[in-house]
Design brief:
The protein is 40% helix and 17% strand. By secondary structure, it is α/β, with parallel strands linked by helices. It has three domains: 116 residues, GTPase HflX, N-terminal domain (Rossmann fold), CATH 3.40.50; 62 residues, no CATH class; 207 residues, Rossmann fold, CATH 3.40.50. Bound molecules: guanosine-5'-diphosphate and magnesium ion (MG). Magnesium ion binds next to α8.
């Protein structure tokens, strides 16, 4: 069920029953009292959430995170529901995780562990797999230093035997260190190749648009609606990890652009994962235009948009022009519906951006979105003429590992 457990029941086909726990520290406002997102994360990782507990505290308890009284309550709940694991909405320190496992008698995962598990299960491309493995090893390495309970379980179940000896830990840690080093080298090579491909694309002068947004906002569904492709869209978090790119025709003046569906962002995305996925996320930063897709029906719409802006900033994409798409407007009550389907709003950085309300599912607003896109592309091309397409560059004819296709942009002045 989580990266700290051996091949789990979930991967064998029957989901692990899990109790979800979230702690409301009452300050940053990012807390989701419904735990819906954690439930969706758990389901995406193959777990079956059977109960939810929200705990209020001023500060985390150093040993048991929720304090021993609450830990006892959770234990009772675990027993009455027959749960096999407990998932925390926040990041636990390795010591807290271990203490909680001892206290509760079942395996304990945190949000980071669950996200890493999902990424590990979904990574498709060579690069994606390398990136996820790197992030997981880095997560594990910090735990090993303080004797991660994973090893104890491997050697015979929680609490049955003592942990592995210090010598074993030291050995494992060194092996992990070496593996991390070799992974980094391999990733470095792959990234260099990507850089070359990107330059080739730049020479071809394709206008690049990337879909970005909170996970589950409907990016893949919108991608499919726009290019009539079939990218995986699912009510699961991180169904898409690897970038998919297709040509999108926007009419005679704007011409053909390349549209990329990318991995979604999520609150508390493990920092190591952002770092590891830098190359993938970089694709967003390199786009000429970002199509920022938001779930307009979500009660956490603003928090989610803020989080997306924060990650964009982190990957150096804060200055890339945006077009905002408020998706899922079929789910809005009449009173929530906008008066006009296209308007202008101001972003956190002061930039004024177009906003279009659509339903990727019903198709409502998609034509207006195409028009807004075509307008934006035309304006951008006028503002900054693209390098002339090097149609005869032999490299542009070579089949690229990158799924994007060469589209000489020859239609605009
Ligand atoms: N009601 C409704 N659901 C949508 C819409 N667009 C996407 N969805 C659903 O939202 C979920 C997530 O969609 P997906 O495209 O995979 O999101 P992504 O993670 O941003 O790529 C799926 O269950 C979609 O069917 C929409 O316009 N209306
Ligand atoms: Mg997707």
């Amino acid at each position: 069920m989580n990266s700290s457990s051996p091949p789990s029941a979930a991967s064998a086909g029957n989901a692990t029953r899990a109790v979800l726990v979230g702690v409301d520290f009452g300050k940053d406002g990012g807390f989701d009292p419904t735990l819906d997102e954690l439930a969706l994360l758990a389901q995406s990782a193959g777990d079956d959430p059977v109960a939810r507990v929200v705990v209020r505290r001023k500060a985390p308890d150093a040993a048991l995170f929720v304090g021993s009284g609450k830990a006892d309550e959770i234990k009772t709940l675990v027993q009455s529901t027959g749960a096999q694991g407990v998932i925390f909405d926040q990041a636990l320190s390795p010591a807290q995780q271990r203490n909680l496992e001892r206290h509760l008698g079942v395996s304990v995962a945190d949000r980071t562990g669950v996200i890493l598990d999902i990424f590990a299960a979904r990574a498709q491309s060579h690069e994606g797999k390398l990136q996820v493995e790197l992030a997981r090893l880095q997560y594990m390495a910090t735990r090993l230093v303080r004797r991660w309970s994973h090893l104890e379980r491997q050697s015979g179940g929680i609490g049955l035997r003592g942990g592995p000896g210090e010598a074993q830990i030291e050995l494992d840690r060194r092996m992990i260190g070496e593996r991390i080093k070799s992974l980094k080298e391999r990733l470095h090579k792959v990234k260099r190749q990507r850089g070359t491909q990107r330059k080739a694309r730049e020479r071809r002068g394709t206008f690049g648009i990337s879909l970005v947004g909170y996970t589950n906002a409907g990016k893949s569904t919108l991608f499919n609606a726009l290019v009539k492709a079939r990218a995986l869209a699912a009510d699961q978090l991180f169904a898409t990890l690897d970038t998919t790119t297709r040509a999108l025709w926007l009419g005679d003046e704007a011409g053909s652009v390349s549209l990329s569906d990318t991995v979604g962002f999520i609150r508390d995305l493990p920092h190591k994962l952002v770092e590891a996925f830098q190359a993938t996320l970089q694709e967003a930063a390199d786009a000429d235009l970002l199509l920022h897709v938001a779930d307009a029906s979500s009660p956490l719409l603003l928090e989610q948009s803020t989080e997306v802006e924060r990650v964009l900033d982190e990957i150096g994409a804060a200055q890339v022009p945006q077009l905002l798409v408020y998706n899922k407007c079929d789910l809005l009550a009449d009173s929530q519906r906008p008066r006009r389907n296209v308007d202008w709003v101001e972003r956190a950085n002061g930039q004024r951006v177009r906003r279009v309300f659509v339903s990727a599912r019903s198709g409502e607003g998609i034509d207006a979105l195409r028009e807004a896109l075509a307008d934006t592309v035309r304006e951008r091309l006028k503002a900054a003429p693209a390098p002339s397409p090097a149609a005869h560059d032999p490299r542009s004819l070579a089949p690229a590992a990158d799924p994007s296709l060469p589209f000489p942009r020859s239609h605009h002045a």
